[in-house]
Structures are given as structure tokens and as C-alpha cells.
Amino acid sequence: MPGARHWAILQRVFMSISTTGSAEDPATDLGFLLHKHPGKVQRFTTSHGEAHVFYPEAEDEVCTAALLLDIDPIALVRKGRGDGRGRGGSPDFALAQYVNDRPYAASSLLAVALRTVFRSAMKGACPARPELPGRARPLRIELPAVPANGAGESGGPALVARLFEPLGWQVEAAAIPLDESFPEWGESRYVRIALSSGTVRLADALQHLYVLLPVLDGAKHYWVAPDEVDKLLAAGQGWLAAHPERALITRRYLSRRWSLTRAAMERLELARLAEADDREVEEIDNAVDDRPEEEPGDVNPGASPDTNGGERPEDGSAAGPAPEPPRGPSLAEQRRTAILDALRETGAARVADLGCGQGELIGELLKDARFTGILGVDVSARALRAASRKLRLERLSERQAARVTLTQGALTYTDARLKGFDAAVLCEVIEHLDLPRLPALEYAVFGAARPRTVVVTTPNAEYNVRWESLPAGAVRHADHRFEWSRAEFRAWAGKVAAAYGYTVELRPVGPEDEEVGAPTQLALFTTATAPTTATAPTTTATPTTPTETTTTTTPEGGEPR
User: Fold this and answer.
1) How many CB atoms lie within 10 A of CB 388?
2) Which of 375, 459, 498, 523 could be cross-linked to 352 through a Cys-Cys bond (beta carbons 3.0 to 4.6 Å apart)?
């Protein structure tokens, strides 16, 4: 009598990929792209059975590759018992370990098989014909049975269209009846799918399938661990961030694990913002560093602070630390005090901290009950996570927590979430933008969001000579694109106020020097009424031509928020 493994009937999941060609551009190049010879039947071992690749047809005009997945139900049960702590890989196993649809339908099992069998094709690698992976081809992909579960969202053929059509696929999807002999029983949760493209790279097509097949199913046959976020973002690179259903895709791919979904959505939003600005993610997700929150020479301008808090003797000897001078508030603290004073003067209750960094200003706003609504916006997901930890939002009372919202966004784009606030703060933000991008920020804040009050602070470049720790010609932070003199800042503030109907008052922040002024300059913009219309900027010119600094020298102490 055969053993249980041989006794179980191996069930089959099927998928085919077809392309067309000509004698000059043969369709059989599909074999090079898939790294599978059209003249052979090949077998591969997977974690839940065996996969077979063969070619029902292989001519210059038409070539079809088929993937047949033989799933062993016994192996499926043994390897689908979760993580050993009662957490199964999917609801199907909890309901019925041996009676389920996994061996029959294209789902996460097929997605894993795609990654196993066509790994090189998914990466776009073809050493034998390196010119082929980058070339788009007409493709047709057929899947005879795919679960398309709704589970709160519309499922069936409509869900297939929502997922694949934004990626350029022409979708043919038909629901499969529960039993063709009894049409009155209605439709099953399965659909028959055919995807056709004008032209698409094979690697892109395989990545689409790898992500979207489990999404259609809404469940996975294995426990979804944190590394699934990395898998999703790697497979979705170049298309997922811009997909209109990226939230649904992320949620379902990660089996509705909310902590993982939140982390993935933050990274996707960052990728989208970076792509919109034509910059690398690392360039804009740089708001968190490990340096102290003080300017160079914050406590004692003109000195060279040692790491132990004292001052080095002039001869450079290794003398012990000098007695610490009386410590007053740091420049960062003085800056926040000046901002809070300005906000209180204007009577603002709802305040948006734009470019909030790690939330130092938000923490001060929370201490004052007059600020009833606080919005923190930053492009950096890391900064927002750091702010949430520093503010201990999860430990706040329900009433206090309701006062604060942290959200990811780019200040160079109009954002409806910024409207309706009494005041907006740009604390040490504008100098981090390239000058040609500054008019976009001006319109987004002063023109579109249009709060009654806007507070802007920025370094006074003239004061830099008072810090011996700052090399000549250097800026205070490696990410500063420019630093303005008092005249340049005054000219910019006047231009913005005139363009958007504000009045502006300039104030010094920090110890004021007779020759070079204060280390920080503050502009308080106020307006009584909002205009009926506001137009986007038509020029990227600035009122003066500040010298953009190209050095990346970072002074000890830095100047993070």
C-alpha cells in the first residue's frame, strides 16, 4: 500500500506566458529571458511540491512558456503550521488543514514558485543576451483559477482590474461559477484571468505577478514576518509608490498586519516624494542624526568646544577640562522661545510645524494649553518616528494625543492637510531647499495653505565668522543649500509678503553682535484677510542672488533642529 505522501493526489496550479515575434526578433527569445530552454521540460523543487516549466509552442512567431506547480498537500500542512506559537500562515489552515483551496488556485504559493523558478528573470539578468532584459515585449499571461477575495473590499473581476489596469495591462477577468451544472448557485470567489500588454519588460511583468497574486487572494500560506516589507518594496520598486491602490496592495500583501503596513506605507511615500523631486531617498530622508541639538559654539561663541565640555588650551596641550562657564539656554532653545512668543502674540491656536524634524518645537507647543491643534509635517519617515518616540505619543492621555498629528509630506507641493491652521512655522527649513525649489514652497505655504501667521527662521550667514569652530566659507550644516545675510533674508521676506498679501516683521534671535547681528533671523508674516485667489509662481528667481555654498564641511556640533 503506498505511503501517505504517495497516496495524496498532487494538485496543479497552472500559468502560461506567451509572446509574439518574427524571424528578425524571434519569440523564442523568451527562453533566454526565462533561462529555460524551449526544447526541454525542466523540474524544480519548491517548499511545497515541484514546479515544471515547459513550452507548449516555441516558434519564431509565437512562443508560450508554461509553469505547472504540483503541490503536495501533506507538505503544505506540515510547513503551514505558522511560527510554532499558534499563529498559522493563513486562515485556511486554521479552518481546515487538509481541506482547502491552496492546491488548486494561483495564490501566494505560485508567487513563491515564480521567485524560485524565475529568480534571474525577475532580476532582469541575462548574461547570454544582456540586451534582452531591457527590451519590452508583447506579453500575454493566462491564469485559469485565481482567488479574488473581497473581504471588505470589492473582489472578483473588479478587483483584478483595479490592480492590473493602472500598470498598463489589458485585463480579461471572468468569475468562475460554483458549479456549471447549477448556475443558480452563483459565482465562486475565483476568476479566470488573461493579461495582455502592448509591450512590457518581462522582469516587470513577473514582479507585478509576484506582488499582486497574494494581494488578490488576501492571504498567504506562511507567517508574514517583518522582512516581507523589504520583499514588497523590492518587487514594487518603480511602480508601487505611484499605484493608485498602493494602500490596498500594501495592506493585503502584508496580511493586514498594521505595524508592517504602516512601515511600508511610510517608505513608499518617501520613495514617491523622492521621485517627484528627482532625488534619491537618502537625500531627503536625512533629518535625523546623532549630533547634539546645538549650534557650533552654542554656549560660548568664539570658543572651540571640546568633547568633554571644556576648552582646549591655546598650546594644544592635554590639560584637563576648564571649568564650565555658566550655561544659558542654547541657541536652539532661544529660537523655540522666540517662535512661541510670536505665536502667542498672534493668538494662534492651531499650529502646523512644517519640517518638524524630531518634534522639539511640538513638545514645547504641547506644554501650552492655548495650542489646541498641532500638526507636524516632515518628508522624513525616520524623523517622524523619532518625533513620536521623543514626544511619547503612545503614553499621552487621549485628550493630549488628540491635539497632535504627525504626517509625512513634502513642503514643495500643495497639500490640503495644511489648510485651516492659524499659524505655520518653518523653523530652519528653507535653507535645506535648493534655491530653484523655494518658490514652490512659498506658494504651497503662503498661497495654497494660507495661514494667518507664518513664522520663518533661518541662519544669519554674517554671524558665522564669530564661530572659530566653523571654517571660513562653510555652512552650519552639511545639508544647507544656502545661508543668507540679513539683507538677503530681508529682500526675500519682503518679496514673499508683497506677492501673497502679508505684512512682515524681522526679529533677531540669540545674542546680537553690533557688527554681524544675531546668529538666527526670524520673519513674522501676518495677514488679516485671505485673497479670493492665489496663483502659482511663474518664476524661480529670488529677490537677491545669495551665494550658494557647495562645501559639505560640517562643523562640530552641527545645526539640527
Assistant:
1) 16
2) 375
d(CA 117, CA 138): 21
Say whether 191 sits in a helix, a strand or coil: strand
Query: What's the pLDDT tens digit per position in 426-459?
Result: 999 999 888 988 999 999 999 999 999 999 999 9
pLDDT at position 187 is 84
**HSE (side-chain half, CA atoms, 13 Å) at 271:** 17
Q: Quick one: pLDDT at residue 49?
A: 76
Give the tens place of pLDDT for each residue, 154-200.
778 999 999 999 999 999 999 888 888 888 888 888 889 999 988 89
Question: CB neighbours (10 Å) of residue 482?
Answer: 21
Which amino acid appears at position 420 of this protein?
G
d(CA 385, CA 511): 33
Mean pLDDT of 100-118: 71
**Contact of 520 with 477, CB cutoff 8 Å:** no
Q: State the amino acid at position 431 in one-letter form.
A: E
Residue 489 CA to residue 457 CA, distance in Å, equals 10
Alpha helices, DSSP H, located in 367-519:
381-391, 398-401, 438-442, 486-500
Quick one: CA dihedral 56, 60, 61, 64, positive or negative?
positive
Please check whether residue 126 is in contact with residue 35, taking contact to mean a CB–CB distance below 8 angstroms.
yes
DSSP annotation of 409: -
Backbone angles phi, psi at 206, to 5 degrees: -65, -35
* Integer CA distances (angstroms), 66 to 173, 233, 301, in order: 19, 27, 73
The alpha carbons of the chain give a radius of gyration, in whole angstroms, of: 30
Q: Kindly compute the dihedral angle of the four CA atoms of residues 159, 162, 163, 167, in this order, to the nearest 10 degrees.
A: 160
* CA distances, 535 to each of 306, 426, 442, 500, 539 (Å): 51, 21, 11, 9, 12
Count CA within 13 A, CB hemisphere, residue 484. 28
Pick from 247, 159, 164, 160: nearest CA to 205: 164
Please classify residue 178 by burial: count the beta carbons closer than 10 Å to its beta carbon, then call 0-12 exposed, 13-18 middle and 19+ buried. Answer: middle
Distance CA 42, CA 67 (A): 10
pTM listed for this prediction: 0.56
β pairing state of 373-378 and 453-459: unpaired
Stretch 457-470: mean pLDDT, rounded?
88
What's 328-366 look like in SS3?
Answer: CCCHHHHHHHHHHHHHHHHCCCEEEEECCCCCHHHHHHH
Q: How far apart are CA 226 and CA 247, in angstroms?
A: 17
Cα angle, residue 172 at apex, residues 122 and 120 outer, rounded to 5°: 5
Q: What pLDDT sits at residue 273? A: 63
Q: What are phi and psi of 332, to 5 degrees?
A: -60, -40
Higher pLDDT, 220 or 115: 115
Could you give the percent of the chain with pLDDT greater than 90?
Answer: 41
Residue 311: per-residue pLDDT: 31
What distance in Å separates the CA atoms of residue 221 and residue 90, rounded to the nearest whole number? 5
**pLDDT classification of 271: cutoffs 50, 70, 90:** low
Answer whether 424's CB lies under 8 Å from 447's CB: no
Q: What is the pLDDT of residue 322?
A: 39
Measured between alpha carbons, how far is 362 from 342 in angstroms, rounded to an integer? 15
What pLDDT does residue 195 have?
A: 95
